[in-house]
């Protein structure tokens, strides 16, 4: 579909969805689009006050929608566990769509509540734990999808299984790229395991191109002749609004007959902007051996059973 947009969203009446980081940017657009299309929508947000304002905004824009708010701090596994339990109750035991949207980018070296490097712990481990803890309600009443947001930055990412928590050295952009590569490897392995177990569950991924969101605005100013500096200069020319950046995730969430493990992004200007379509992933993102190894290590770090799927 060459010009897919929000008007192409299908009727989602009777479906339930959770969007992490739904208080601003791409997450807010995604949640509103799902609510307007009839889905019961849960906004999973770290900041309670900002989440409350986002909930009110959705209810004003889609007054007939069934929209809820759950507090979720992906940088705290205890919060993830509590949020998953609350979500299961809010959706009455049925979840059809999980959009792993929330994330942080290019932070100085910080640690999560559980001692993980903040970007890896939030962007990957938090979503990994949330998805596994929601498995009892995902797809119990029909086909379900897990859509995880990655980034163009995954292409320079490397997974260091021996130093996932940056104990031997730290690069804020390297850590970000690693977390976004991890998102794609998680998607591939979740989809493989779901197929092998016979679950009616698809795992897909998307990226927003270069979009004007709080995530990008909160990042540091860049300098030097490296990929990050080039990305910043390009963004001044090619950044698109969050309303456009959300389209690939919504496309992945609702496209009929989408293949499992698909990856979508903007189709134009090097995948920086435009209508959604298939996106290119790096060779490392297609390494199923690494996907399995990362899954096992992620389960160990989060204390979860790797064979839940």
TrEMBL record:
Keywords: Oxidoreductase
Keyword Oxidoreductase attached: yes
NCBIfam families (UniProt xref): PRK05854.1, PRK06197.1
One GO molecular-function entry: oxidoreductase activity
Native source species: Streptomyces arboris
InterPro entries cross-referenced by the UniProt entry: NAD(P)-bd_dom_sf, SDR_fam
A Pfam family that the UniProt record links to this protein: adh_short
Protein name: SDR family NAD(P)-dependent oxidoreductase
Entries under PANTHER family matching the protein: PHOSPHATIDYLINOSITOL-GLYCAN BIOSYNTHESIS CLASS F PROTEIN, PHOSPHATIDYLINOSITOL-GLYCAN BIOSYNTHESIS CLASS F PROTEIN-RELATED
Family: Belongs to the short-chain dehydrogenases/reductases (SDR) family.
Region (Disordered): 264-285
